[in-house]
Amino acid sequence: MTFLTFSSALSAACALAVPITLYGATAQAPPSSAPAPVEATSTPASDAIEVARTALNSGEPSAAKHVALATAYSRRARETAGPEWYDRSDEELVKALELAPDDFAALRMQIWNQLGRHEFQDAYTAALALNLRAKDDVLTYGLIVDAAMELGRYEEAENAAQWMLNLRPGTPIAMTRVSYLREQFGDIRGSIEAMLAAFHSTRPSDAEDAAWILTHLAHLELERGDTKAAKDYAGSALILFPDYHYALGVMGDIFEAEGDHESARTRLAKRYEVASHPENLYRLAVATEAAGATEEAETMFAEFEKAALAESENVDNANLELVEYWTDHVGSPEAIARALELVSKRARRRSDVPTLSALAWSQHRAGDSKVAWDTISKALAVGSVNARLRFRAGEIALAAGHPERAEEQYQIAMQTAPRSRFGREALEAIKRLPARSSAE
Question: What residue spans define the domains of the chain?
Fold first, then answer.
């Protein structure tokens, strides 16, 4: 795959941009180019809802007014992780389409909501159809990127993202998509560069957007094992948007990577309080167990399994976490068989890297490491250098009888994030590999 490119002038602008003022020892304020901190009772989306409602209640109703309110509701869904906001948004979009049956903005917003509900195939199909109506609409290309990436259609996602750059170079909606793809293709440094460009192009009034970008920068720094930089970015996001559930999750991951399991547990408990979804409960249970509260963790795991099974057939589910729980925590032959069945069903619908990785690991845990190697090789071909993915690929390769390939994967994991858990485990795995003969 060719990496997405943007103009040399923009690259230089990104490189010369004023550095983000970070949370931590150097500062206790949000980035100088970012919006001022928001109060928990007032957020960009909640303010937009009030403005849109006022506009709708004054004068004649119009499709545009209903779309404005729908958009505010959908943004509130991301702020709160509350799916009920998508329902409210859809109600407004129905009203908009009653007034203007072919309204482009309303149809585009419906696709946004489909993505929010994880209806990725439907969103992909609808976005492609909408794109035919307006080949120069950059937002529609963004929807294609998002849906295609979730389905594992990385080439289509890359093509759509390149169109975004061609049409609107340097805009946050384009640069965030470039960042996502570069990460998947294994270019963490380039991904960070693109996300920084997105941050410096974000309007001061878009506090939640800025917090999301800072959170993803924290994730990217954690991907390459720089927990200090990751903590600074996540901390800045939490100053900008207090109790932001995405930032709390990444902060928990950072503390866990540092071995501070109690601090990780505290952050993840707060995230679950803010966004009570099964996948968040699973991460809290893992951190609670690591912190030594075994009995409490077991209660959480049981509650998680029950909740995850209840929504397992929904398109928005915690099936990857359920698969991990069965393969790595329970570990019985029966649990591993259930995991393999569940993830195999998912893999029939999508071929993204996380799905292929989970399928390969389940196949490996079920004793079919040769098939698992074939599966994980498809994920590796995309290019991701994620330390966990590469470490597990090494474990699978070793079990499949490919020690040289195993060492190669361990090396990538170790080089990507040497201080991470999987980087350290990769180093230990390399030490255990049989020495090669001089003839080799």
Answer: 37-117, 351-434
Please say if the pLDDT value at position 41 is more than 90.
Answer: no
What is the mean pLDDT of the segment spanning 338-361? 99
Domain 351-434: top CATH class: mainly alpha
Query: The domain 37-117 is classified under which CATH number: 1.25.40, 1.20.1250, 1.10.3210, 3.30.950?
Result: 1.25.40
Give pLDDT tens digits for 366-420. Answer: 999 999 999 999 999 999 999 999 999 999 999 999 999 999 999 999 999 998 8
Give the model's pLDDT for residue 42: 83
Comparing 37-117 with 351-434, is the CATH topology the same?
yes
The answer to whether 103 touches 63, Cβ cutoff 8 Å, is: yes
How far is the C-alpha of 380 from the C-alpha of 409, rounded, in Å? Answer: 10
